[in-house]
Amino acid sequence: MRTTHLRHACLAIGMAAAFAPVAMAASTDKASTWSGKAAPLATPWTGKVSPTNALPEYPRPQLARPSLEHPQWLSLNGLWQYAASDTETKPTFGQALKDKVLVPYPVESVLSGVQKHADFMTYRRTVDVPADFTAHGQHVMLNFGAVAQDAVVYVNGTQVAKHTGGYTSFAADITSALKAKGPQEIVVTVHAPVDGEDVMVGKQRLKPEGIFYTPASGIWQSVWIEPVGATSLAQLTFTPAPSLDAFTVTPKLQGDTTDATLHVTAYADGKPVGEATGPANAPLHLGIAHPRLWSPKDPFLYTFKATLAKGDQHDDVTSYAGLRTIGLAKVGGLNRIVLNGKPTFLLATLDQGYWPDGIHTAPTDAALRFDIQKTKDLGFNTIRKHIKVEPARWYYWADHIGLMVWQDMPALPNGHNEKLSDAAKAGFKTDVTAIVEQLKGETSIIGWIPFNEGWGQWSIPAAGELATQIKQLDPSRLVNARSGANCCDTKGDPHAGDVYDIHDYQGPGLPAPDATRASIDGEHGGLTLGVPGHVWPNTPINPYGEVKDNAALNAGYVANTAVLRDKGPGIGVSGSVYTQITDVEGEHNGLYTYDRKIEKVDEAKVRAINEATIEAGSPSL
After folding, report:
1. Which 3 state secondary structure label does DSSP give 423?
2. Has residue 562 got a pLDDT over 70?
């Protein structure tokens, strides 16, 4: 059984609740936004967003110049001119556009001020580039955190970038396109087909229903400019050594790198604990004195100062990373997931990263941190980031707060896998590579999931192919080739990757590890409790297993998790994912309401059973 109104085929088994055809009441708190529009469902941060403070934090914490505390940059978040169209139109330059949009909120969101989807859109603004950005031969980089889906960027009428992929960052050196003085014109044209084409869309749908949600199109992550040297660092990746006493430092460079050198110093609590120098076009080995490991119990992070030098030019940046490994080991004859060589039960929530006011974009940095912090407060040690890629600051908070992360790939549209073109398959593989390359420096990410329940998976072997592709790109992490091998599209176990994963609602499922893989329950639970006044308006409830009140939800969660505590260790299960941390549109199965205003469970009781489950599922070698 599978319909678009059901979370998964396995939901039908043992489901107590019937489909609810009538939506619950919307929130009575319709906070006014900066544009005067009433939010359909307001969060505690909705009213704090304005054109003068739209996500003002530095967007890329792992590569800040010269430091995260004192970055040299200029945010371009704020009001842009805007025009929408049903068909592709050529951009015009030097002409104002009639409407306005607040960047970086998706155009469908109330915080954008537009609150309407468009397949084609144009953004325009002017900016005065500070004189010191181009002094001493420096170049100016224009950076985009993410634009959904296809973007073409022009500066003063000159095309400077063309990017495909709604979940990955990109940048352009705009120095040669700048005028000698006066305002510089930036124009961005965007094509946003959502599920109208076979591209990565995750849970977005032009016609949202059931488990699929409102689209998030256009510029949806921060935009900024910053000065760099003619030769500069585009990325620094710190990969912990298996011996847990060193990092491999891998630079990605831009500009003329001939004879460039890289020097990196590691710091622990402000004191130097290691350094390395070498040619900039090759990885460095950076040994660490008296290593201190990263874990959810102790999310210790080293900071780094790096200097890229070429002649009399230099690029100074700061970064950070934790020293940790993730892998498999035999424990009692069974394959188990081990963190830093120790068996560790990965107790996770499903986290979809949707917001009623910003959709894909959290209204503020405090809001972005909220879900992660509450997950930690509830006693979980892991998050499954479901079918979405987050802004860099989300991973920054996961790294610092101390949550491990299963990182999903945003899925292609589901339901017609057999009709996917070779171009769509190739595009998906290209996007997967780009996402892994972008995120593989994040300490919190411990595993990759290319396919969820076969959505957009064109064959059973395809999951194995993607698992191999990812493992070649990043051998330092686990790969879960397919979450939900027992469900729902292109059903079947690919017998690939490091993890065997089933979904079981209510569950939990208790899959046994096999000869080559550890096992987890990739989704379970989903107990449903809508809270009147705190739900998305005009949306039918998607059923998972309804409970009558908070006490019943709390008792149901504790009983569900107790099965993992009591039976999981004997079977050898290495982890689980409870659905989910917050409600999302028609899904009312969160531990928090969609507006983040009501915690539905008793935090102390949930934390107690969670901590007991992690302890029971983490046996000694």
Report:
1. helix
2. yes
| Mean pLDDT value of segment 453-476 | 97
Residue 259 region by backbone torsions, left for phi larger than 0, else alpha for psi between -120 and 50, else beta: left
227 φψ region: left (φ > 0), alpha (ψ -120 to 50), beta (else): beta
Q: CA 279, CA 285: separation in Å to the nearest integer?
A: 12
Condensed to tens digits (0 to 9), the pLDDT of residues 306-364 reads 999 998 889 999 999 999 999 999 999 999 999 999 999 999 999 999 999 999 999 99
In the structure encoding, which two tokens stand for residue 111, read together? 């915080």
pTM listed for this prediction: 0.94
Helical (H) or strand (E) element with 604: helix 603-616
**Alpha-carbon torsion 225, 230, 234, 238, what sign?**
negative
Mean pLDDT of 370-396: 98
- CA 497, 401, 592, 339 dihedral sign is positive
Burial bucket for residue 618 (CB in 10 Å: 0-12, 13-18, 19+): buried
Phi first, then psi: give them for residue 220, nearest 5 degrees. Answer: -125, 5
Mean pLDDT of 437-457: 97
The pLDDT of residue 479: 98
Does residue 274 contact residue 266 with C-beta atoms inside 8 Å? yes
Q: What is residue 435's predicted lDDT score, i.e. its pLDDT? A: 98
How confident is the model over 231-249, as a mean pLDDT? Answer: 97
* Pair 213, 136: CB distance under 8 Å: no
Task: Name the CA radius of gyration of the chain, rounded.
Answer: 24
In whole angstroms, what is the distance from residue 266 CA to residue 323 CA?
12
The whole-angstrom separation of Cα 310 and Cα 258 is 8
DSSP conformation class of 157: T
Q: Is 94 helix (H, G, I), strand (E, B) or coil?
A: coil
